[in-house]
Structure formats: C-alpha cells, structure tokens
Amino acid sequence: MTHGRGPGRRSIPNLLGEAALTSSRVAGVDGESIPLMPDVHVLKIGGQSILDRGRKAVYPLIEEIVALKDRFQLLLGAGGGTRARHAYELALDLGLPTGVLAALGGFVPRQNARILQMLLARHGGIFILHDDFEKLPLYFRLGCVPIMTGMPPFSYWEKPGEVGRIPPNRTDAGVFLSAEVLGAGRAIFVKDERGLYTADPKKDRGARFIPRIHVDELVAMNLDDLVVERVVLEYLRHARHTREIQIVNGLEPGNLTAAVEGKDVGTIIHA
Amino acid sequence: MAKITRHEDERLHIEGRFMRESLVDRRVIASTTTEEELRILPDFDLVGIGGQSIFDRGREALFPLVAEIAELHRTRRLVLGVGGGTRVRHTYAIGLDLGLPTGGLAQLAGAMEEQNAIMLQALLAKHGSILMAREHFWELPLYLGSGMIPIVISIPPYHFWEPPPEDGPLPGHGSDFGLFILAEVLGLHRLILLKDVDGLYTKDPKQHDDAELVPRIGARELLARQDGELVVDRQLVQALGRARNVEEVRIVNGLVPGNLTRAIAGESIGTTLVRENGR
User: I want to staple A112 with a disulfide (CB 3.0 to 4.6 A). Which of A78, A136, B23, B25 is the partner?
Assistant: First the structure.
C-alpha cells in the first residue's frame, strides 16, 4: 500500500517540497514581505458611532476627507451599526450559527459604504467590492477615494468565537486586515470616543483614558470591554506591516485630519 | 415591533438588546451563548479529497475513488471538496521568494484548487456532479434535492484578508479548514477527509517502526502534542475545539478501496478527531 509521500504523487520541485502545510511555518524562511501600497491611509468610519448619528456627525467628516484627498491616498472602510445589531439579534433568536450572522452582518456596512460614496461622489468617491481591491492603484491614480465595506469577506466561512455567536471578525478586523495586506504602517479607526478607556466611558464615569499602550500590555489588562474588536489585538501582535492602530474621536473637528497627517491624537495601540 | 429612537447620545438606534451595547464587551458576547444552534442542512456527507495526498496521484488514485463515490451516491447524499496540492506549494514558494505578504499568498491559492475541482467535476459529471460557485451557497438544498453531487470550493474566501499567522508566513486557513467551517455553519455532525495515510500516528510512521495509529483523539489534546505532524490544518483543529455543531473529523486513507464507504457507514477506521468540549 502506498503510504504518505513518495512515488505516485506528481509533485513540482519547490522550496516547500511536499510539506503538509498544516501550519504557517516554513523552515528557514522568515517570510519578510514587501509592503504592497505603503502610502495608503486606511480609515474606518464607525457605524453606530458615526454613521448612525446622521448629518451632524457625517458632514464635517466628509469635508475633512475632501480637504485631505488630494494630499493623501485614502481608503475608507464603513462600519455597520444599529441595523447590523438588529439583524444579529433576530438571527440569534432564530438559533442561527456564527457564519450566517457574519453573512448577514455584511449587508449593513455595504449600505453604509454606499451612503459614503453618494456623499463623496462629486469629489471622486467610488464604491468598491472586495474583488476590486487589485484596482486600488488605478483609483488612486485617478484621484478617487475608494470606499468599501469594513467587513472581511469571510461570510459563511467565519469561525465561531470562543463564546457566544457574535462573529469575531467584523468591520474593525476587516479594516485592519486591509491595512496589513497593503503594507500600511497604521490603521485609523474613526469612532465617537476619544480613544481607549479602562471601561466604557458612556456607562462608567470612572473610566480612565489611555493615550498610548503596547498591545501586550493591553491584553494583559484583561479588560471586559474594548474600543476595538478583540481579534484586532491578536492580529496586531502578529502583523508584519501594520504595527499600530489609532482610535480617534471623529465628532471633534480636525481629529481625522490630524490622524491622517500622522499626529498622535486619540489612542495609539502599538505592537 | 422594534422602535427606532434617537437616544440622548444623538445616535439613531433600533431598540433592542444590543442598543448602545458594545459588541466587544465580553458580558454581551457571553449572553449570546446558547445550548443549541439551528442545524441548517445536517443531512449529507461532506468529504474532502486531499490535493497533494490524493489528487496529485492522478488516475491511479482517482478512478477507484470516483467509482466508489458513484456507487455511494445511489444511497447517500454527498458533497465533495478537493485541495489544491503541489501547485499551491509551488505558488507559495514563488510568492515567498518574491516577498508577497500572507494575504497576497492567500489571494493566489484558491485558483489551484479550482483547477482540481474542475477535473473532479469532469470525472463525476456523468454521475450527476455539479461544480458549485461560492455565490450559489443557498442552492445547496436544490442540488441535493435533485440528486446531484455538489463539488464545493474548499478553501475559505479569506483572500487578501487572511489574518496574519502567529508562527510563519503561510496562510493558515486552508482547504481542510474551509470544509470544516462549511460543515460547522450548515450544522453537520461530522466531516470526512481523505488522505494518503491511514490516519494520525504517535510518531512519523515512515521513520519509526514502532509508530502506532491513533484511533481517536480530542482537539485540545492534539494541539498540545508537540511531536508529529497534524495531518490536517492547525486552524481546523483549533476551530474543532470551539465547534458548536461538528462533533468529529474523520481522517481516512483514501487510497484504500472501500475506506470511504466504511467511514460513511460509521466504521471505526482511520483517526477520529473529536471536539470534546461538552457544548
């Protein structure tokens, strides 16, 4: 009986040989990779935190984006918000699994990306799908502001989290992963809080602001609540290019601009 | 009926349990744990055909397997997936040498598997197979109901968004994992993976005469083992430990005629990875 490697398999000789590929490791290769588009600034526009506030919160941000877009390459990722939560609530009540929730969760950020596109259309806002990602160089060359869903494309293939059925990879994760594969040094999250606190400042008056923190230190603090999705911290620890995330309060004028210009406003979580 | 309210925080909310809640909050997440999930489409056998281990062997390995699948199809509802094999390794080797990032490698890998899926479709077409595009996810009941053998794309659609692995440059979410997660979301009880080994051994059987086959092992125990190959994606084993629906993953030698039939009949051959988390 044939067993394992050797005769019978039509293999192409290569660096990995007949490796099982059951892990990510390659003996003797550290996998240093090139940044594909390191000049792109990847920004997430929050769903519940920004878009659900409507005109009052969104219009000033649009103005800031328009003022920046000829100086910087901006890729926007949209968050979900209250409609996504409502869909999750119904789906949870129906007993549906994580993968279905992730698929359902994809629709609202897509709507929000389309909303942002409409507002930015006359300034070169362009709605893109995951499949358009390889066309980013063209969009930037034309002076466009590409806008996409913040959700990663995992959909039905989303892994269940350790507990519960809420998909662990949502729009923060997707935006972070976009930044990492593009080779951007930082991912910027525009939300409605100054940044990271020791607790939810909307509910806990004693919450303390944290301007800058190492990701390992933050993980060690073992906070019950965080300002970004928990998987983002894990990704930040292992990422090759995106070694920092920045969380800024988009309700305060000038913060988004300062963040894109590389100033340390809000909270920086670094690896 | 759900009410839409503008809260004093100025956000327009739909009233509900998650209104103003942080979906990152552990307590909120824990509140979504349930004893049971809906098993969406639990009544078929999902079988993964190894890329390098089976498919790259060509006719010698595939023709007997195709005959066995055609025979099984008379009485069972089957869904198949296939890995990408040696061309994926070659893609990764070239990509790594050129300095492509992990997400870039993941974006490339699926194409090699799709080639294998087309070849498998060509072999099984006369028995009623149908190559299923990801976008046709919800047509699975239609295909099964009309007596077809759907062939799915195994590798998950993580593409450029492949999470950065903790231990190396290669994408961690491969074909084994992709089939597993499909089984999990549809509510299957088990997944069968065909490889060219009899299962998992205590040591590498090609180097040690005293290596013994492990008939049954828990996901956590397997992850804790330092020596020996995993045979399947590490991500699959990790996800099995957290699974809500899939109870076991069976690894069977697909080069031995009759093994697939025996595995589907529930005979204890090969190695069974079990969830063991009491969920």
Answer: A78
Residue B99 has its nearest CB partner, among A25, A34, A133, at A34
Gyration radius of chain B over CA positions: 21
Q: How far apart are CA B173 and CA B175, in angstroms?
A: 7
| Rounded distance between C-alpha atoms, residue B218 and residue B276, angstroms | 6
Four-residue CA torsion sign, B232, B236, B240, B244: negative
Task: Report pLDDT for B1.
Answer: 59
Which of A17, A53, A94 is facing B38, going by the closest CB pair? Answer: A94
Radius of gyration of chain A (CA): 20
Tell me whether B170 touches chain A (CB under 8 Å).
Answer: yes
The pTM score is 0.91
Kindly list the residues from chain A whose CB atom is less than 8 angstroms away from the CB atom of residue B61.
8
Nearest CA in chain A to B200: A4
Identify whether the C-beta of residue B256 lies closer than 8 Å to the C-beta of residue B262. no
Give B171-201 pLDDT, tens digit per residue.
999 999 999 999 999 999 999 999 999 999 9
Contact B56 A181 (CB under 8 A): no
**What are B140's strand-pairing partners?**
none
A111 — contact with chain B (CB < 8 Å)?
no
ipTM of this predicted structure: 0.88
Distance between B261 CA and the closest CA of chain A, angstroms: 18
Kind plus residue range of the DSSP H or E element containing A25: none
Q: Which of residues 239-268 of B touch A (CB under 8 A)?
A: 239, 242-245, 253, 255-256
- pLDDT confidence band for A1 (50 / 70 / 90): very low
Distance CA A265, CA A263 (A): 6
At A106-127, the pLDDT tens digits run 999 999 999 999 999 999 999 9
